[in-house]
Structures are given as C-alpha cells and as structure tokens.
Amino acid sequence: MKSILQTNGLTKVYDDTYALHEVSISIEPGRIYGLIGQNGSGKTTLMRLIAGLSFPTSGTLELFGYTDEKKIHQERKRIGCMIEYPSFIPNMTAKDNLKLHRIMRGIPNAEVEEELLQIVGLEDTGKKKARDFSLGMKQRLGIAIALLGNPEFLILDEPINGLDPLGVVEVRNLLIKLCTEQQKTILISSHNLPELYQVATDYIIIHDGEIREAVTLKQLEEHCKRYLRLECDCPEKLAAIIEYELHTDNYKVMPDRSIRLYDFLDDKEWIMKVFFQNGIIVTNCSTEGDTLEDYFISTIGGAERV
Amino acid sequence: MYNLLRCELFKLRKSKLFLLILGVVIAYSALTSVLRYSSIQYGGGSEAIYGIDMYFEQLSNYLLIAVAGSLIATTYVCMDFDNKTIQDAIACGCSRLSIVLSKSLIYFFTILITTVSISVASSVIISMAYGFGMEFSAVSIFKLIAITLTTSFAYSACLSPCILLSFLSRKPVVVLAGGIFILFLGISFLKDAAQMEPAILTILSFTPYGINDALFTLDAATGDFLKTIIVSIAFMLIILAVTHMSFRKSEVR
C-alpha cells in the first residue's frame, strides 16, 4: 500500500533561520507515528506544512499519493487536525462547536455530534460554553472536532496536554482503538516520552529542524532495553550456562565478547551464584541500557544540548 | 463554498456580539431620532431636518456604520483567526478563495442588516412623531426601499477594506483603527478637500465614498442608483481580489 504522506527534502526558512531542513519522512497507513522533539525543534512547523497552513521554502510533499498542489488541497478533506491548540468558538457549547465544524465539512449526519461527544467524554457538558471548559476538556473537544468526517489521517499536536491521568488513559486507548480497529493513521507529537511510548508504533525524532532518526517501536525497544552486561574469560561457556541453567535464550553475545542478558535484572546475586557453581568467574556484571529519555538525548546529540 | 456560507450563517446566528452591536446601533439611531424630533419641537435644530429628511439623516450616518462595520469585521474575521476556525477550514480542504468569499458575503449581509435596522428604527420614530399622516405614494415607498438597499450596498463597498485589513493584519485594533480613522476621518477629510479641489471630487466619484450622497433624497434618479451599484461592485471586486492575492500564499498561524 502506498504511503499516506511522504516528504522529500522539505525545508522551511523563517528570516534566515531553518525551521525545517531537508526533512524526508514517510508515513505508512494504519500506524501511529510519534513525533518527538524539544520546543522549537520543528514539530509544529512540519504539521502546519502538512495541513496547508504554511508553505515550504523548498522540497516536496506527497499526500495520499498526490504531489500536485490542487490535488493535495482536495486530499486534505481526508485529514483531521488539531495543531497547537484546539479550534473552537469560546461562546458556543461543545455540541454547537461540533455542529459548526460538521456544517463546514458538509457532513449531513447530525447524530455524529452526540457520538463524538460520547467518545471524548463530553456528553454531559450541556449548555456549558467552551470558554468555561478546563484545558483537558478543550483538548477533548479539539480531538472530537479532528475526528469529524471519519478522517483517514489524524494529525494531533500535543493532544494530551492538560489532560488528567484518567483523560490521558482514555485518549491513549481511543488512539490505539482508532488505529487498530479503523486502520487510521495517526501523527502525534508530544513532549511526554513515556506516554508516547505507550501509544506509538513508530517514532520520528526531530531536532533543530532536522530528522535525527526514524525508528519502529521494535527498534526503539532494542535501543532502550535494559540488560545485564556480563564479562568473563569464556563467553561461550557462559552462554551455555545461561541457556541450560537459567533456561532463557533472551541474551546476545556482543562483538566485544561481552554478553547482554535481558532477563534476571533483579536477581543478580542468584545468577552470580549459579555461574560460580558452574565454574565461571564473571568479572563484570552491571545493569546497562538506555531509558527512552537517554536514547532521545543521545540521538539529538548528547545531554549538553538539552 | 456552500458549506462555508452555511457555517458562517450558523456562527452569525449564535453570535451574541453581533446582536449586541446591532442593538446598540438601533438604540443609538432611535435615540438620536427622538432627540432630533424633540429639538425641532422646542424650536431648535435645522428646519431642513424634518420628516423624511430625518430618515435620510439617519441613513447617511456614515460614522455609525463605520464603527459598527469595523467592530463586526473585528469580531467576525479577526476572532476567527484567534479561535482557529479559519485554520481549521484550510486544514480540512476548503480553498482560501472560498474562505475569503464566504466571509465577505456574510460580512456584507451583516452590513445590510445593520443599515436596514437603522432605517427601520428611524422609520418607527418618524411614524410615531409625525404619524402616518405623511403621504407616501407607492413609488416613493418603493424608492425608499431601493435607496436603503443601494445605500447598504455602497456601505458594504465602503467597508470592504475592513475585510482586507482583517485578513492582512488579523489584529482587531488595526481593523478598528482602519475602519474608523481611515475610512471615516480620511474620507471626510478628502470630501472637505474636494470642495476646494475638483480633481479630488472626480476621483471620489469613482469610489463608493463619493457617490452615495446623491441617493439621500426622494429625487434620486435611476442613474444615481445604477452608478452607485456599478461603482460599488467594481470597488468590492478590486478589494476582494487584493484580499485573495494577499491571503492566497500567506502563513496562517
């Protein structure tokens, strides 16, 4: 299946400053992409370019297989967006706001308003004006508006900002449900890395307007997995003991002849005893591996840049 | 475009601010009509302002329209940039031209409502003050309606730069300043200057700012109506074209 979105060398310059520099990404259907980056890294600029709110200085953008500007514009009807902060009229109720956006999109079915309010948990707001909503409620309303018209591609900029813990879980479950059950493609930006880790299937790390890395969840897990680094004179024998005595094959022999053991992280004393009883002297046994934050920091160029 | 128009009408129907502006305009118009009538009763005021002239005096209150029109543009266009309705329209595939056109058409519609409200308010005061004893032929009534509608058309053209300013600056204070200071004070200054310099008068006569004065009398001829409508349409088209050109490739934050 062809890509939902593909950018080739997308560049955006504001007053001689690169907001985006040669950004080339590919968004495949039915996946949740987490866009990770610091403030001012270019996340929102990229989203604004996709949504047509801004124009690239150079580079091309392909949306649903189209590169022609007019076609791209038409294809935007298949996108739902919430960029920076939600779009709503403050002196209208949640239902009226949904009605307004429903009319704008030419959706005849009025029942969709109630359905979406229920999905985002705003069905009991009644006549309360949107200006009196909490930040979390405004975010939910923004998500409901983005979901109008059953879009194939959702672009959500910091959607969990201001949500309470329960709201975060609800939005997370909703996004996963939309992706798994309705095969929607979602591009979501967030500062909350652990939260993003629970939702996204793919990660795009952006820094200073440049894409530093695009990895799948599996690759990220590989990078971020905690392990026991074991060193000894005879790694072959150690590997055999791990398999036959510890009954696990969740380990790797590295080129430097050290062994990465991904299990028994909390049972160091016991495994050392097992190795000793089998005649192996382990010279080093340390817990290593990146956390998501560590990995992000190392990808963008080290702690000094944060 | 049709969906955007429906959306704008829905927004207008729900806008308390527009109703407030309309209420203030009607109250101001009614109050000044009452004060004018009272001053005539007590021997003050100009003899020329009497009966139907009171109606034309209210209708030609350009300052009132300029203030109301600028406020409406401020709340209607600038606020939509603030609350991201325009951004959302672009992101969901509405063309920028249709956004400019739908906003402009509904804006002109609000000017029509405002102008008609002023005429209705002053008509009520006149009928209460002078009774229905004033004799109007069917032609005169038809002419009054035509004058009101054509004036509203000319006012829409006069205030169309507010649309341009709103899309360009997106700042309420700039639109208000533009509407009141430039469109009212600037044009008033030019009209005064035209008394001394006929060339300015000639230039003004090709804009909606200089043509509609001829309409404020029951003696207005068909030519005056036609000229007002043609000049207004041409002016609106130019302003809308400039608005679209400036908005077509602009960054929307």
Which short descriptors sum up this protein?
heterodimer, A: 306 residues, alpha/beta, Rossmann fold, 2 domains, six-stranded mixed sheet, four-stranded antiparallel sheet, 25% strand, elongated, B: 253 residues, mainly alpha, 11 helices
Structure report:
The complex is a heterodimer of chains A (306) and B (253). Chain A has two domains: 5-221, P-loop containing nucleotide triphosphate hydrolases (Rossmann fold), CATH 3.40.50; 226-288. Chain A contains eleven helices and 14 strands. Chain A has helices at residues 43-51, 69-75, 94-105, 111-119, 135-147, 165-182, 193-197, 217-224, 235-244, 268-277, 292-300, and strands spanning 5-14, 17-23, 26-27, 32-36, 58-63, 79-82, 153-157, 185-189, 202-207, 210-216, 227-232, 251-253, 259-261, 282-288. Chain A has a six-stranded mixed sheet, sandwiched between helices. The relative contact order of chain A is 0.13. Chain B is mainly alpha-helical and 253 residues long. Chain B has one domain (2-249). Chain B has helices at residues 2-14, 16-41, 52-59, 62-82, 85-91, 96-130, 138-169, 172-196, 198-204, 208-211, 222-248. In chain B, helix 3 runs antiparallel to helix 6 (96-130). The radius of gyration of chain B is 19 Å and the shape is globular. Chain B starts with a helix and ends in a 5-residue tail after the last helix. The mean pLDDT of chain B is 81.
